[in-house]
Amino acid sequence: MEFIVDNVDKTIDIGMQIGKLANSGDIICLIGDLGTGKTHITKGIAKGLGIDDHITSPTFGIVNEYEGRHKLYHFDVYRVNDPDEIEAIGFDEYIFSDAVSIIEWANYIEELIPQEHLTIIIEKMPEMGDNYRKITIKCYGNRYEYAKEIKI
Predict the structure, then answer these.
(1) In DSSP terms, which residues pair with 27 in a beta bridge?
(2) Which of 16, 38, 60, 122 could crosslink 48 through cysteines, CB 3.0-4.6 Å?
(3) Domain 2-149 carries which CATH code?
(4) At 52, phi and psi to the nearest 5?
């Protein structure tokens, strides 16, 4: 599925819809260049999970934890130089738990991502304007079929 959005609120709304539909143990992979809106979509997912905390990207701490309808683990692996680094923090224990896991820059550690997951790719569309983004959602596994219900 592809969506074209022209503002941050629409990006957050897509995330909120995903968060409302997300289930325990879901793994959501975010891919996109710097400044595309990965953290904004994460804010929406958190909101959909009933999390009111201020959501920030865990760039220097690798993972932030939040409590909501389901626990949320928010990873940012941008600065991970070697997949062994993330395995050392107990990555498997996090993503194979009852929490919803969001992984920013998931393409950096794709060999560690389980076969079943939801991938969200966010791309800038400068030819249309500074705020335009193409958001592509790909479901890998039947458990993520709920993403087909998302609308803008």
Answers:
(1) 101
(2) 16
(3) 3.40.50.300
(4) -100, -5
